[in-house]
Design the sequence.
């Protein structure tokens, strides 16, 4: 039933970021709460004009919220398209029908395609609470999804969002199975591949828990928030782009599932594959090179696990006519000197410009991926990719292509250097035996990355390198003295971020 | 690491009721958020004096929260024992170690006793987010728990909270497997059993989604928020009590699990049994009578399902030396005339006082339960319980015992009648063929129950009864004309709450 009469409430933007979960805040004494018997964590349907959402209810005691107000989380405010002065009406939501299929799955059933369609539709529409989403994710985890179910889930995820279509063929894409900071190969790969004549309409993400996402680093060099039409013009003119995918709703259910899967840390090949492949199919890609770093602190820790994931990705991609090629790479250390948007962007420029000081690891990794892309994209015969990619880079063709892409995206930008720096030095002599990627990322975040684009750190030593006492291991960059001190204090308390062993 | 220096934040009580989930609200521009790379839904450790909790983070844009403030949800404020002017320090929490056992369970493993101990300890301490709790509940649902695991879970739940011990033996208890409004047998059963010489230290709950809990109805007649010491004195003097269990932390994990299980509606015998038995074992009970209503709109819909649940309860109770007796009762309609705290209390008094207008169904149900309690408690031989219970009620012994209990709990109270009433009448002639318990409960809540104790409704017709056009089917009671109209409007839009068929 709809709540009417005395209970027409004024929408109030509270500015509370609950990520994707819609939350409505009502005063405990309000007529609506009393009359409807609403209590904390109830689900409530909120309508504003023609739009409506289902939100979780937080009850407020005291005067944070007025009696005639409905406070809205940022996500709810945006989803309702609310404006100051708007009123909202509240009602009890219908039970989420599709969740009964989740219950059956928990009792050992199999999902049908229609059930997965309905679940993903409800998820994308925000009808699942985070608790219901967690139950769905758990019900699918632990190899409980058959290959047929994974395929149907992926298809449902693609169908629930925007799907791009390109005139050109083939349409190339790349993906890296996370876990390594500073692995900023994408802009280099796109530049080489586009210079080699391939179509690479790359959409990238911003940092979620890392010090920088590809979109954050690229934004230091050119605008990345483009409309779909602008993105199309860039790709038609230059063959490639590197834009922020967040502006385009590709597989929106994926974002919601990842948000719950990440804290739960359920490491299921099926979920990872559905996530990656749904995004790429929605982006209209026909060929995908996947970089799978393998190493003790990377996501994949054994070659067996990496090979199993590769098989799942390849077979799932095949069902959508997406050709998937997996590269197993060294995941034992960062793949660049810099960690943080601008510092990673500078690494990218150094490689593109063939600077003598460019990071050899980053250069090699980007060439490896670009080479495979040129081969499977039909721009050279198998085995000749490495030479072709190296030539495109060394000749300056990739650098010129990259500049054209930046111009087409809205204009080249100069990376800025941070004002404050501090070296963290070796306190004993020896060789660098291990690098703790996770803590290294923490230092960069404490220094201000990614919110301060020029903040982060630059590695001065690599795995296996011999160092003497007092030699800089890495340099922290920050835009304020407070953040510099803050990051340095953490670094000094954690001397084994770069572990030095007997030489 | 602990966040120090510029980031000593002032605790601010926001009054936001997030139920049991601890939430901390920080401004997006705050040094802490930037420096720590904190974002929406991160988990944060919050310390205040000697206490600390792990909370979910909501990021706030704009000026709802000051830059030097940490807004706290009501649950977080209370758990930290914070006071105005207190400062809090924030840090990244350690990963919740016990959750790795949940991950293994999802991959098909079995929980060990030590793992379940650790999980329940972390749950009770508030270290699990609602998403993690949902994953645990899902991992245990659908018959995935072996009897041994269910036993260990129950033991862990008991051990995680207060455990009462009584000098007297036996210690009697009752429980009703929900689903029926107005099933207010508890005060009558306790009065009869205590009058018959049994020890019945009954702890009851308040309404969560229903129009009244036993504690709400009892509170109309006497105080129910007693300290443990006060409760002991009542039981020592009178043999029984009916108090609110919320003041005593019996099986605190149960409250947290129920909060997630209810919206997910996972109907697992193992979870239900662990919940019921852990509460009763923690309460120090030795004998338990369980009322299991069976009917089309009750929780248990078939006798097979009821019998299966009874076997699980009996066998699990046995492992804790708790003797469990299950009674299968008629769950097709409410077991009293009134629905709402005061209206149910009036039904209770009418039965205790042998009023000619007392509800026969309620009287019969209470006698049935009390009779079984007297038999298994050794106060009469098998088969003589019904006569003994009827005598204790008819003689006035139960009524006198109830008055003494009320006095011992702090003094008898008179139920108040609501100021506003409205009859909902039959619009066609015929017999009452079905009663929609769920919608009937909704009407009582719309009228103001349980927040307004005298609000609710009184049934004027029962299943099978013949009615004529214009005859009252039920009467809505409310404390304000607005609430009365509100409930009546819903009732008129739902004419089949009492369904009338051909006579």
Sequence:
């Amino acid at each position: 039933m709809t709540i009417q009469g005395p209970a027409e409430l004024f929408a109030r933007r509270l500015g509370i970021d609950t990520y994707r979960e819609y939350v409505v805040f009502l005063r405990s004494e309000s007529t609506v709460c009393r009359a409807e018997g609403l209590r904390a964590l109830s689900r409530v349907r909120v309508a504003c004009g023609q739009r409506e959402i289902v939100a979780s209810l937080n009850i407020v005691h005291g005067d944070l919220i007025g009696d005639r107000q409905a406070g809205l989380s940022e996500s709810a405010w945006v989803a309702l398209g609310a404006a100051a002065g708007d009123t909202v009406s509240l009602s009890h939501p219908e039970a989420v029908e599709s969740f009964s299929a989740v219950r059956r799955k928990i009792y050992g059933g199999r999902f049908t395609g229609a059930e997965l369609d309905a679940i993903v539709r409800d998820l994308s529409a925000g009808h699942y609470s985070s608790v219901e989403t967690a139950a769905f994710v758990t019900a699918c985890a632990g190899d409980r999804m058959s290959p047929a179910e994974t395929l149907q889930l992926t298809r449902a995820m693609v169908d629930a969002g925007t799907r791009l279509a390109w005139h050109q063929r083939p349409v190339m894409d790349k993906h890296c199975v996370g876990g390594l900071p500073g692995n900023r190969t994408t802009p280099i790969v796109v530049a080489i591949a586009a210079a080699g004549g391939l179509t690479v309409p790359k959409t990238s993400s911003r940092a979620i828990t890392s010090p920088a996402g590809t979109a954050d680093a690229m934004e230091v060099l050119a605008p990345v928030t483009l409309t779909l039409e602008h993105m199309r013009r860039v790709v038609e003119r230059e063959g490639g782009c590197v834009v922020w995918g967040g502006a385009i709703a590709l597989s929106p259910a994926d974002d919601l599932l990842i948000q719950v899967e990440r804290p739960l840390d359920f490491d299921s090949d099926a979920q990872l594959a559905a996530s990656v492949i749904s995004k790429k199919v929605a982006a209209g890609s026909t060929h995908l090179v996947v970089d799978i770093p393998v190493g003790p602190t990377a996501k994949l820790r054994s070659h067996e696990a990496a090979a199993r994931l590769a098989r799942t990705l390849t077979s799932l991609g095949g069902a959508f006519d997406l050709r998937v090629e997996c590269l197993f790479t060294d995941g034992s250390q960062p793949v660049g000197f810099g960690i943080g948007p601008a510092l990673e962007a500078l690494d990218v420029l150094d490689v593109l410009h063939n600077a003598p000081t460019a990071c050899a690891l980053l250069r090699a990794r980007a060439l490896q991926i670009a080479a495979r892309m040129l081969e499977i994209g039909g721009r050279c015969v198998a085995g000749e990719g490495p030479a072709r990619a190296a030539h495109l880079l060394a000749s300056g063709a990739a650098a010129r292509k990259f500049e054209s892409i930046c111009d087409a995206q809205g204009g080249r930008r100069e990376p800025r250097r941070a004002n404050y720096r501090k070296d963290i030095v070796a306190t004993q002599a020896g060789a660098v035996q291990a690098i703790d990627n996770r803590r290294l990322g923490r230092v960069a975040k404490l220094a201000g990355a990614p919110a301060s684009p020029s903040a982060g750190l630059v590695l001065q030593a690599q795995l296996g390198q011999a160092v003497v006492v007092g030699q800089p291991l890495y340099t922290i960059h920050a835009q304020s003295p407070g953040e510099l001190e803050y990051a340095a204090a953490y670094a000094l308390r954690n001397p084994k971020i770069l572990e030095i062993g007997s030489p």
About this structure: Confidence is low (pLDDT under 50) at residues 1-6 of chain A.
